[in-house]
Amino acid sequence: MAVSASYPDAVQVLIDEGLKVEASFEAPGGLKGFVGRRNGHPVSLYLMPDGEHVIIGKMVDGFGQDLSANHLRNWLPKPDLTGAWETLADAAWVSEGPSDARRIVYVFSDPNCGYCVAFREKAQPFLERGIELRHIMVGIIQPSSLAKAASVLGAENPVQKLEFHDSQFPRDWLESEENVPKDLREKVQSNNQLMETLSVAATPSVFYKDPDGEIRKIVGLPDDSALSEAVFRYPE
């Protein structure tokens, strides 16, 4: 059911801290369940019968079944990706592949993300098929991520910077985010915010279009079959 405009104090305090509640429901054990997102992460929480205390996290039954996973799957609305393609196109990204590609794929990449490196390596054979890969650079994993992402966006040859070597960015940038040039820092921070808006909280997160032109996303490193059959499907 849709959530009401008012919440018990124990839930409201979490909302004030950044939680976005998107649905409520009757949970087992006489509890009131809520699902939502915080910083792009799905969250389940359960209001105790006294209405004054909330438990955040996973609910399991006597058989070990993860009930919270079912609650998130059944009650948490899928994010509306209408207009997302235009928003992704307006982000700060680095392109690999032909500029006149018939197919475009976007991926959120953090320079300190080993899975992002693996994704890029797996993507290389597909780029010769008329596919362009656009890396939307973010800084979310480690304190150095923002500086590294900014250095990629500001490089004369950004593709070379995608190797993510520590020696490839100004060391003094790491002393403080404020040392990163303002325009580059704002681009990375805007990309970080875009991740949250699109309800993705991990890198790599991949956005592509299916054969019907619908926008699809995969959070995390896609497996090889998903890469060949969906993400990097040969342009028709």
From TrEMBL:
CDD domains: DsbA_DsbC_DsbG (cd03020)
Localisation per UniProt entry: Periplasm
Pfam families per record: Thioredoxin_2
Annotated ranges, domain Thioredoxin-like fold: 101-222
Keywords: Periplasm, Redox-active center, Signal
InterPro entries documented for this protein: DiS-bond_Isoase_DsbC/G (IPR033954), DiS-bond_isomerase_DsbC/G_N_sf (IPR009094), Thiol:disulfide_interchange (IPR051470), Thioredoxin-like_fold (IPR012336), Thioredoxin-like_sf (IPR036249)
A cellular component annotation (GO) from this entry: periplasmic space
Family as reported in the entry's similarity comment: Belongs to the thioredoxin family. DsbC subfamily.
NCBIfam families: PRK11657.1
Entry-linked PANTHER family: THIOL:DISULFIDE INTERCHANGE PROTEIN DSBC-RELATED, THIOL:DISULFIDE INTERCHANGE PROTEIN DSBG
Job of this protein: Required for disulfide bond formation in some periplasmic proteins. Acts by transferring its disulfide bond to other proteins and is reduced in the process.
Protein name according to UniProt: Thiol:disulfide interchange protein
